[in-house]
């Protein structure tokens, strides 16, 4: 087994080159040293492609969805415990007893004002695709409907799934197609469609049609939030297919990380329905990568488990499952079709090794990357190389340059930049997840020109004393970097900035902030790294606006 090496204690700073003492707040020109050895935290919700309703981006005017979590705590566990026993007797491995916590009286559920309209059916003409959620916009008697499973130009019967007579807008599903668009196909997945699995948004659309929808979303967000035409953004107006174009009806098995939910009554796995606690039982997920499917998770019962995170690494045979048991439940004996490492998450969200490694090894951009505890790694197997190539092409790093890799995860772009700037250059990575920082330091331990710091970008960057750099990569979570961070970055006089974005609205908003700071996009590429869903990834390259 690979040993988890302790992180390298020091490296070159991207700016000052000075180091500060352990745990102390930095003075200008210094970078705070992180403290080590803290207990491993539960993997953050780092899956940024929005596979569940929890993480799905919001449609215009949308309220954030309530978190979709299995009920926890003493009250829930017994009732939810599955009646069926495991095929084999369960291993004597009991999770810690649930600790009685001071529980606040639950707030009364908010009853939406007005009469409920759920179940009402309206014949509508479907308009443009909306940002987020895989919806298209339609109107009925002046009221906006966000309709799933529809396509622009179609005439459909839309059945309301959320909303009342007082709602500003309604959510709906296209349950009957009266006039179909030419990009519509029969969904290859038997679990896709109105009221079913919420994982894929666009199983009913040809691969080319899906990319056209993504083009429309990006075009609209650039215009609305950044006031940019595609040409002004340096974008050729395409969303590039990754891994070759697919014929209609074929589904790429791209998802190297899948979070299964387990039905508490039956112990059967499934996937969450759209914006719902309900589970759609499945026996196969068509977009799951081969390495996930071949584990045979769907073929087994999972008594006492509420969710299973499955990870199939690319470039190594590492497979990992992370189990979340119901409080107090015994872990069942895990029998799968392939060797797999097993971890569990306890009711305090701590991560525990059960069997094998707590990490997987991913191979990308000429290196092997340790990713621990289900931490962030791009889900599409070709995403890391695709994005690294786009960033390096756009930045064209030169020997001896200094670079920042912000929101650096386990160090993907920092490693790629370090190779290009060489020993005369320096890269500073900043990342807020403790475990990702430990991994990044381990992954890049051989590079003397890289330093990884643990903190939030917005808190640490102003404290580093760095006043200028040559290059910046930023790859923030879905919410984007925001006005203050962008303003700070724009003041660092970088020759070029690469902005890697998974949310076109956050990207467009931040491009507008960058313009205020004197930067403009000179190129923009969009990649279809989440086929069958409404998500995609962008890489924008920015340069100072010439005076
Ligand atoms: C989209 S991931 C990018 C990771 C990495 N660049 C990669 O490609 O593997 C965003 C990362 O930002 C981290 N993060 C989230 N908020 C942050 C913040 N305010 N400051 C620093 N890092 C943050 C997350 O833990 C996550 O690792």
From TrEMBL:
Pfam families referenced in this protein's UniProt entry, alphabetically: PCMT, TRAM, tRNA_U5-meth_tr
Biased composition (Basic and acidic residues): 63-83
Keywords: Methyltransferase, S-adenosyl-L-methionine, Transferase
GO BP terms, alphabetized: rRNA base methylation
Gene Ontology molecular function: any one: rRNA (uridine-C5-)-methyltransferase activity
Binding residues for S-adenosyl-L-methionine: 378, 407, 431, 475
Low complexity compositional bias, start-end: 18-27, 96-108
Region listing for Disordered, in residue ranges: 1-108
Catalytic residues (UniProt): 502 (nucleophile)
Domain TRAM: 115-176
Family: Belongs to the class I-like SAM-binding methyltransferase superfamily. RNA M5U methyltransferase family.
Name of this protein: tRNA/tmRNA/rRNA uracil-C5-methylase (TrmA/RlmC/RlmD family)
Species assigned in the record: Kitasatospora atroaurantiaca
């Amino acid at each position: 087994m690979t040993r988890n090496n302790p992180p390298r204690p020091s490296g070159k700073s991207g700016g000052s080159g000075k180091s500060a003492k352990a745990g102390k707040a930095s003075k200008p020109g210094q970078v705070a040293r992180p403290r080590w050895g803290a207990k491993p935290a539960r993997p953050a919700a780092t899956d940024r492609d929005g596979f569940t309703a929890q993480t799905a981006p919001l449609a215009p005017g949308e309220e954030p969805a309530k978190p979709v979590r299995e009920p926890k705590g003493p009250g829930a566990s017994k009732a939810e415990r599955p009646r069926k026993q495991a095929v084999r007797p369960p291993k004597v491995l009991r999770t810690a007893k649930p600790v009685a916590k001071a529980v606040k009286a639950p707030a009364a559920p908010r009853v939406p004002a007005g009469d409920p309209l759920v179940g009402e059916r309206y014949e509508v003409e479907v308009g443009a695709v909306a940002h987020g959620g895989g919806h298209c916009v339609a109107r009925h008697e002046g009221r906006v409907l966000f309709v799933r499973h529809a396509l622009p130009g179609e005439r459909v019967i839309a059945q309301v799934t959320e909303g009342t007579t007082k709602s500003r807008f309604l959510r709906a599903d296209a349950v009957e197609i009266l006039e179909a668009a030419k990009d519509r196909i029969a969904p290859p997945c038997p679990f896709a469609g109105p009221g079913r699995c919420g994982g894929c948004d666009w199983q009913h659309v040809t691969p080319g049609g899906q990319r056209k929808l993504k083009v429309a979303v990006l075009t609209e967000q650039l215009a609305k939030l950044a006031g940019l035409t595609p040409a002004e953004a340096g974008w050729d107006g395409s969303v590039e297919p990754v891994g070759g174009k697919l014929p209609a009806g074929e589904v790429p098995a791209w998802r190297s990380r899948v979070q299964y939910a387990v039905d508490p009554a039956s112990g059967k796995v499934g996937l969450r329905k759209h914006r719902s606690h309900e589970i759609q039982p499945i026996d196969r997920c068509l977009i799951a990568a081969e390495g996930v499917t071949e584990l045979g998770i769907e073929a087994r019962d999972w008594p006492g488990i509420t969710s299973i995170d499955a990870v199939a690494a690319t470039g190594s045979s590492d497979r990992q499952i992370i189990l979340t048991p119901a409080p107090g439940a015994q872990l069942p004996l895990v029998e799968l079709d392939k060797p797999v490492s097993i971890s569990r998450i306890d009711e305090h969200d701590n991560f525990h090794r059960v069997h094998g490694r707590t990490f997987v090894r991913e191979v990308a951009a000429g290196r092997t990357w340790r990713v621990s505890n289900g931490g962030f790694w791009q889900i599409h197997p070709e995403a890391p190389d695709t994005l690294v190539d786009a960033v390096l092409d756009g930045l064209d790093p030169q020997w001896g340059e200094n670079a920042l890799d912000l929101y650096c995860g386990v160090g993907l772009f920092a490693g790629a930049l370090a190779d290009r700037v060489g020993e005369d250059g320096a890269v500073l990575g900043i990342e807020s997840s403790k475990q990702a920082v430990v991994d990044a330091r381990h992954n890049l331990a051989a590079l003397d020109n890289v330093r990884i710091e643990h903190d939030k970008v917005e808190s640490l960057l102003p404290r580093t004393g760095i006043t200028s750099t040559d290059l910046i990569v930023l790859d923030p979570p879905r919410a984007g970097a925001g006005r203050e961070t962008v303003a700070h970055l724009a003041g660092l006089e970088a020759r070029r900035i690469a902005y890697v974005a998974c949310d076109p609205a956050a990207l467009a908003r931040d491009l507008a902030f960058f313009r205020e700071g004197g930067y403009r996009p000179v190129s923009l590429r969009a990649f279809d790294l989440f086929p069958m869903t409404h998500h995609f990834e962008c890489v924008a390259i920015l340069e100072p606006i010439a005076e």
